[in-house]
Automatic annotation (TrEMBL):
Domain N-acetyltransferase: 7-169
Pfam families (alphabetical): Acetyltransf_3
Transmembrane segments: none
Protein name as catalogued: Acetyltransferase
Length: 172
């Protein structure tokens, strides 16, 4: 477990799955690049049962420390060990937005990546309409590295995908 002031990152549990599926389905437009199609119960179970302690993907449940309530998830999605680069992702249930939980969870995750995985660079992709997330990433030190112009189609409009990165030497 990784403990912050307000949140904790821990392993996923089977009892998290239904709440996780509902949360993900509500925030698909912010997290998935393809056509946002709702996850089924079977999809969530298959994802959970695919966890492997020896893989290069690390998924954490995010919970509130004071109540142990599951509020979202984050993780390391892709690792390039040769070049010491990885990609991160996060989602929170909408009722937990704008409370600092996501920023703190990402701070714990970034610390884990640099200290425990010995990675040199972290990158992520964020949609240009998601200004809340961009501000959070910038607060943690991420820099805009590039823009994939009109890469995403959502709500009848084309949006840019912003590539952001953070180097170990820039962290804290």
């Amino acid at each position: 477990m990784l403990d912050g002031k307000k949140v904790r990152l821990r392993e996923y549990r089977r009892e998290d799955l239904e709440k996780a599926r509902n949360m993900v389905n509500n925030v698909l437009k912010y997290t998935m690049p393809g056509i946002p199609y709702p996850l089924r119960v079977e999809d969530e179970i298959k994802w959970y049962e695919g966890f492997n302690a020896f893989s290069d993907n690390y998924s954490f449940a995010i919970e509130l420390k004071e109540s142990n309530e599951y509020i979202g998830g984050c993780g390391v999605n892709k690792v390039d060990w040769k070049n010491s680069v990885c990609e991160l992702g996060i989602f929170l249930g909408m009722s937990y937005w704008n409370k600092g939980y996501g920023t703190e969870a990402m701070e714990l995750l970034v610390d884990f990546v640099f200290k425990e995985m010995n990675i040199n660079k972290i990158k992520l992709h964020v949609y240009s309409f998601n200004q809340r997330a961009i501000r959070s990433y910038e607060k943690l030190g991420f820099k805009k590295e590039g823009v994939l112009r009109e890469e995403l189609f959502r709500d009848g409009k084309y949006w840019d995908v912003i590539v952001m990165g953070l180097l170990r030497r820039e962290w804290k």
